Amino acid sequence: MVTRFFAFRPRMTLLIDGYNLLHVAGLMGRRLGPGGLERARNALLGLLASSLTPEEAARTIVVFDAGAKAPRDRPRHELLHGIQVQYSEPGEEADDLLERLIAADSAPKQLTVVSGDHRLQRAAKRRKATAVASEAWLEELNRRRGGPPPTVRPPRTSKPTEPLTAEEVDAWLKEFGVG
């Protein structure tokens, strides 16, 4: 079962499914132009940096799918705003990397995994870590900041029906390193 209410705890390590939280936070629109994915990632990291204490940020790891989507001028592991950012390896999903990080954690009872992905929630529970749905975590983060309720996007249940323009197709091809 996924924790519905989340409380920040001392010495807690946060492991965040980056793209899952991006979607829930509404930071990733339906159509992103050139550089849009990187802008969305930076917006998420900025939100986290402005919301977490320096101590919490130092114990936070945000994982993104990479493959061809990894920023070309950045390493697979970096420290941004005091937050660890990791990109999966080519041919690997972020979920695989997240599962490895959960399995390798030396104090899983102090680990909180933020994701709406059931596979990751089960992996966290197997290690006795706390699993928190991205929606619940974001709501608590905003409540703690005293800000307005977040704009939470409902999960997409179907593919977009309108076709992409030629410019959008070109932008996506470049974003994924194909064009």
Structure summary:
By secondary structure, the protein is α/β, with parallel strands linked by helices.
Report on the architecture of this protein.
There is one protein chain. Strand 3 and strand 4 form a beta hairpin. The relative contact order is 0.20. This protein has seven helices and six strands. It has a single domain, classed as Rossmann fold (3-Layer(aba) Sandwich), CATH 3.40.50. Helix 4 runs parallel beside helix 5. It is α/β, with parallel strands linked by helices. The termini are far apart. Strands 3-4-2-1-5-6 form a six-stranded mixed beta sheet, sandwiched between helices.
Strand arrangement, major sheet: 3-4-2-1-5-6
Low-confidence stretches: 1-5, 152-158
Shape: globular
Percentage of β-strand residues = 5-15%
Overall pLDDT, averaged? 79
Number of domains: 1
The biggest sheet, with number of strands, parallel, antiparallel or mixed sense and barrel status, is: 6 strands, mixed
Q: Structural class of the secondary elements?
A: alpha/beta
SS summary, helix count: 7
The span between the termini is 42 Å
Q: How many strand segments?
A: 6
- How helical, in percent, are the residues? 25-40%
Would you give the CATH topology? Rossmann fold
Order of helices and strands: EHHHEEEHEHEHH
CATH class: Alpha Beta
For the record, the CATH architecture stands as 3-Layer(aba) Sandwich
Rg is 16 Å
